Amino acid sequence: MVELRDPALQVLERTREGGTVRADAPTLGVLRHLDEIGLAELVPIVEEWPSVSVVVPVRDRPRALARAVASLRVQDYPPERLEVIVVDDGSSVAVGGPEGARVVHLRPSRGPAGARNAGARVARGQLLAFMD
After folding, report:
1. What are phi and psi of 127, to 5 degrees?
2. Burial of 62 (0-12, 13-18, 19+ CB in 10 A)
C-alpha cells in the first residue's frame, strides 16, 4: 500500500494514459519517487532528434552490406535524421551503394580503421556511429 499526497496525485492524474508533463523541480522530485516505487516510468521526451551518421566499412561482402543497411532502415529513428555512409575499402568489385546511402571508394584498401576514418571525414551528422 502506498499513500500519496495531493501533489503526487495531481502529477499522476496529468500523466494518466501516457500523458506527458513538463516537470519543474518539485514535480520532478515527485516523478522520481513514483518511478522508484514502480508507479511511474520516467521517459525523456526528445524534442529534436540529433542527426546521426553511420559509417559502414565493407570489403567484398555485398550481401553482408545489404543486411547491415537493411537493419538500419528498420530502426525507430527519423530517416531524415539518419545518414548512411558506405566505405568500399578496395573491394575486388566496386560496391554499389544501397538507396539513400553515400558511397566512398578507397583504392587501395586502407583496412578497417582507414575505412572508418574516411567515412568519418565526410560525415555530416551530429553523432557518429560505426557499424562493422
Report:
1. -115, 150
2. middle
DSSP H helices, the chain, are 6-14, 25-36, 62-73, 111-122
Q: What is the 3-state secondary structure (H, E, C) of 47-66?
A: CCCCCEEEEEEECCCHHHHH
Residue found by looking up cell 519517487 in the block? 33
The pTM for the full model equals: 0.67
Tell me the angle at which helices 25-36 and 6-14 cross, rounded to the nearest 10 degrees: 80
- Measured CA to CA, the distance from residue 90 to residue 106 in angstroms comes to 5
**C-alpha separations of 36 from 31, 68, 111 in Å:** 9, 38, 48
Tens of pLDDT along 91-123? 999 887 778 899 999 999 999 999 999 999 999
Cβ pair 57, 87 in contact under 8 A: yes
Q: How far apart are CA 29 and CA 13, in angstroms?
A: 16
- The CA-atom distances, in angstroms, between 18 and each of 14, 52, 114 are 9, 28, 46
Sign of CA dihedral 29, 33, 36, 39: negative
